[in-house]
Amino acid sequence: MSQSLSSAGVIERDQSVVTPAIYRYTDLAFARSEGIFLYDYEGRRYYDMAAGIATMNVGHCHPRVVQAIADQAKTLIHAASHVGYMLPYVEVLDKVLGLAPPPLREGKGVLVNSGSEAVETAIKLARMVTGKPMVLAFMDSFHGRPMGALALTASTNVYRRHLSSLLVGVEHVPYPYCYRCPFGHGSHTPDECCGHWRNFIQMTMDKLVHPDDLAAVVVEPIAGEGGYIVPPDNFLPELRAFCDRTGALLICDEVQTGLGRTGKWYASEHWNVVPDIVALGKAIGGGLPLGAVIARAELMDKWWPAAHGTTFGGNPVACRAGLASLQVTQDEHLLENATRVGDHIQARFKQAQSGLPIIGQVRGKGLMVAVDLVNREGNPITVDQVKKIIKKLGAAGVVMTKCGQSALRLAPALVITQEQADAATDIILQVLNEVSPEV
Description:
By secondary structure, this protein is of the alpha/beta class. The chain has 2 domains: 7-58 and 333-438, Aspartate Aminotransferase, domain 1 (Alpha-Beta Complex), CATH 3.90.1150.10; 67-331, Aspartate Aminotransferase, domain 2 (3-Layer(aba) Sandwich), CATH 3.40.640.10. The chain is built from 13 helices and 15 strands. Helix 3 packs antiparallel against helix 10, helix 11 runs parallel beside helix 13 and helix 12 crosses helix 13 (418-435). It is globular, with a radius of gyration of 21 Å.
């Protein structure tokens, strides 16, 4: 590492040219990475429990991904999908479709640059092919920050501050968050769900949205940014039935949950639900910018030439990185590892609960785990408090982010071993022990 570069120096330069709109969870500057580890400019090693915010599924700089990027960069870096045909574009769509359940498996898709763009593309597709204007979304959801996706996002008012005139035609209903029931029924598990979310949807349709105008219902199978909220088992199946009754399309935002994160290729598979349209991002690019929308073939075929497009979407280098990452996920049985290690992480934190009252609820599926933090009264700690804890964790050697108001978000690479997970968990529990008296 060059002696002329230091973490402090990089941070100082950043602050002189980068807008403060880009919030940093840690006070760290990263120089390199390998596997599940990040390294700063002084050579200090950190357990990366964020994985680029649930992106680096096969870990940092996996040799097969690096080789795929290098090989493609020597051959064709960019030509644009509108100019001509490129094999990597075809192959990555063929791969993600092949991993989906039927009839999506026989569907078609389009590649874009990110998860947010995929969500906006999915909404556009639904409105164009149905000819209907309205979309139903959920509180506690996160679908992106651009103005269209932001109209659906409802995880915090921070993203909407001083903004109006977002995409019109969006109505929100409560996501079933049983631990902190939006209907005031106290702390319950999904097995004890009051079911009032169902009544709220019906009331919204009776009072605000005529079924003839409803193009789609957009939902995260597990609410990500909103808190890694795992819904009751009847939630997605009933949404599927609702869409079938009304003629609306079911859009699953699998940007964070998709492609192995939860121990399934698609999180909706946990409930045997097949959406009409799926938005993908994050892990699909193997660490490079890529997003996708896949849908039933008859929907995609209703789009006319030039109805949609993008200059860089489906860039061949990103496609090759994504293909290599997906193949590694299969070859190294990472879905099974995500389930096994994710269950172990949850068990560790649940075991620690009795001696650590700061731990409220532990929840998740696969390597999508939330540890909710509470004060002495059992209420959520403040956002500022959880952010301070995350910075303290960074200084102690573990990098992570938050989700919801007060939850630690554990979303490491799917290659993480149980031993590595234990080492990171030990550090987290030590820090929680230290801060617990303060909250």
